[in-house]
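dumping this here so i dont lose it
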C-alpha cells in the first residue's frame, strides 16, 4: 500500500514537471491555439506562470523571495493602467511613477489633462518610508488594509518588493478592486 502511494506521488510529480516544461517551452501563440479560446485573464495567468517558472529556474532563491525588477514593475503598471483607462474621464491621461525600494515598492498613478512621462526610480528604503509619511492619513490607513489608496485623481499602490506581488494577473485584480471602490462611492450607493 505504501509503495503504491509513493509510486503515485512520483508519477504526479513527473506529470507536474511535464506540464511545467510544456507550458514553459511553448510559444505563446501556439499555446493559445492548443488550449483553445482563452479569455485575457486566463492568458495572463499562463504568461505569469511561465515568467515565474523562468525566473525560478535561473535563481537559487525561492520564487516568493525574488524581488521584482524594473521590467516587471513597468509591466504591472502598464497592465493596471490599461485595465482602468476605459473608466477614466474622456480627455484625461494617466501616468505613473514607480518608487522601488529593496523591501517595498510604491506606484503612484495620476490622471491629468496633459500627458506626463512615466517614471521609474530606485529608492532606498528610508526615503520610501519618508515618502509614505507625507501621504494623507486616510491613504496610509488604507495601506494597512488594502495596500491601496485613492485620493482624488491619485491612486497609490504599496506592497512588498516580491516578483509574485507585481504580475499581470495581480494588476487585473487590483483594477477590479479600484472598480469596486469607485462603485461604492457612486451617489446612489451611499
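and the seq i came up w/
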Amino acid at each position: 500500500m505504501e509503495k503504491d502511494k509513493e509510486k503515485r506521488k512520483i508519477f504526479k510529480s513527473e506529470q507536474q514537471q511535464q506540464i511545467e516544461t510544456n507550458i514553459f517551452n511553448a510559444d505563446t501563440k501556439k499555446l493559445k491555439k492548443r488550449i483553445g479560446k482563452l479569455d485575457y485573464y486566463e492568458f495572463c495567468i499562463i504568461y505569469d506562470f511561465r515568467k515565474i517558472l523562468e525566473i525560478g529556474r535561473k535563481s537559487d532563491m525561492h520564487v516568493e523571495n525574488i524581488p521584482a525588477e524594473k521590467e516587471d514593475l513597468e509591466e504591472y503598471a502598464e497592465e493596471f493602467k490599461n485595465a482602468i483607462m476605459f473608466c477614466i474621464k474622456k480627455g484625461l491621461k494617466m501616468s505613473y511613477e514607480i518608487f522601488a525600494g529593496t523591501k517595498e515598492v510604491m506606484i503612484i498613478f495620476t490622471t491629468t489633462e496633459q500627458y506626463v512621462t512615466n517614471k521609474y526610480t530606485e529608492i532606498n528604503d528610508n526615503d520610501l518610508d519618508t515618502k509614505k509619511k507625507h501621504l494623507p492619513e486616510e491613504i496610509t490607513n488604507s495601506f494597512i488594509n488594502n495596500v491601496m489608496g485613492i485620493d482624488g485623481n491619485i491612486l497609490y499602490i504599496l506592497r512588498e518588493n516580491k516578483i509574485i506581488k507585481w504580475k499581470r494577473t495581480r494588476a487585473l485584480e487590483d483594477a477590479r478592486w479600484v472598480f469596486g471602490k469607485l462603485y461604492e462611492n457612486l451617489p446612489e450607493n451611499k
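Residues 56 and 63 are 5 Å apart (CA to CA).
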